[in-house]
Write a structure and sequence with these properties.
The complex is a heterodimer of chains A (about 110) and B (about 110). With about 110 residues, chain A is mostly beta strands. In chain A, strands 2, 4, 5, 6, 9, 10 and 11 form a seven-stranded mixed beta sheet that branches. A four-stranded antiparallel beta sheet of chain A has the order 1-3-8-7, with no helix packed on it. In chain A, strand 5 and strand 6 form a beta hairpin. Chain A has no helices and eleven strands. Chain B is mainly beta and about 110 residues long. Helix content of chain B is about 0%, strand content about 55%. Chain B has no helices and ten strands. Chain B has a five-stranded antiparallel beta sheet, with no helix packed on it. A five-stranded mixed beta sheet of chain B has the order 2-10-9-4-5, with no helix packed on it. Chain B is globular, with a radius of gyration of 13 Å. Chain B starts with a strand and ends with a strand. Classes of the chains: A mainly beta (about 110), B mainly beta (about 110). At the A-B interface, strand 5, strand 9 and strand 10 of A face strand 4 and strand 5 of B.
C-alpha cells in the first residue's frame, strides 16, 4: 500500500484481556519496527524484524508482549493479560532496508481500564 | 549508548516567524532523522540527514557530525507546523534513539 496501515486505531481493553495489534507495512519494505509511546514522551523501541526474522526483541517490556511477522509483510503485536501500564500508543514503522527514512503508521491507542 | 538532547523543549511563535531547533548527541552516529508529530499523533519523516544540509520547502536541516549536533530550520511558520519535532539518531545498528522533542506552537 501507499503507507503503513495500523489497526485498530483505538482499542479499549479490560485489565487482564489479551489484545492483538496489526501493522501492514509498505509493500516491499524489508524492515519493520514496533515502538511504544507514552503520553508526552518520545517513542520507545520494542522490537525489529527483517523480513520474517525477529532480529531484536530487547525492548519488549515483559514476556506478556509477543510480536510476529510470519510471511515477512503484515506484523502483529500481541499483549497478553493487559495491565494499566500497557496503556500507550503503539507505533509501527517500516523502512526499505532499515537504514534510511522510516515511514510510521498512525498508531494504535491502547487504553487498559 | 547515545544520549540525545533537544532544545528548546517548548517554543511558541507567531505565524510567519522563523525558528531553529537544535539536537545534540553524545556519540558518533551513522544515521539521523528528524520527525514531526502532528497534534493527532502522526509521525512524519522530515529528513534523513546523517551529515550535510538538506532543504525541503520552508524546512531545512543541517547535521555537523564531527561536532555532534543537528539543526532544523523552519521559515515562515504556519499553524500547521505545530506539533512536536523529534530528532532520532542511530549508531551502528538500526535502533533510533529519540530525544524528548521540541513542542512547537504556532499562533495565528
Amino acid at each position: 500500500g501507499a503507507g503503513v496501515s495500523q489497526s485498530p486505531r483505538y482499542k479499549v481493553a479490560k485489565r487482564g484481556q489479551d489484545v492483538a495489534l496489526r501493522c501492514d507495512p509498505i509493500s516491499g519494505h524489508v524492515s519493520l519496527f514496533w515502538y511504544q509511546q507514552a503520553l508526552g514522551q518520545g517513542p520507545e523501541f520494542l522490537t525489529y524484524f527483517q523480513n520474517e526474522a525477529q532480529l531484536d526483541k530487547s525492548g519488549l517490556p515483559s514476556d506478556r508482549f509477543f510480536a510476529e511477522r510470519p510471511e515477512g509483510s503484515v506484523s502483529t503485536l500481541k499483549i497478553q493479560r493487559t495491565q494499566q501500564e500497557d496503556s500507550a500508543v503503539y507505533l509501527c514503522a517500516s523502512s526499505l532496508d532499515g537504514k534510511y527514512g522510516y515511514t510510521f503508521g498512525s498508531g494504535t491507542r491502547l487504553t487498559v481500564v | 549508548g547515545i544520549q540525545v538532547e533537544q532544545s528548546p523543549p517548548d517554543l511558541i511563535l507567531q505565524e510567519g516567524a522563523n525558528s531553529t531547533l537544535r539536537c545534540n548527541f553524545s556519540d558518533s552516529v551513522n544515521n539521523l532523522q528528524w520527525f514531526h508529530q502532528n497534534p493527532w499523533g502522526q509521525l512524519i519523516n522530515l529528513f534523513y540527514i546523517p551529515s550535510g544540509t538538506k532543504q525541503n520547502g520552508r524546512l531545512s536541516a543541517t547535521t555537523v557530525a564531527t561536532e555532534r549536533y543537528s539543526l532544523l530550520y523552519i521559515s515562515s511558520s504556519q499553524t500547521t507546523d505545530s506539533g512536536v519535532y523529534f530528532c532520532a539518531p542511530s549508531g551502528s545498528n538500526y535502533q533510533l534513539i529519540w530525544g524528548a522533542g521540541t513542542k512547537l506552537i504556532i499562533k495565528p
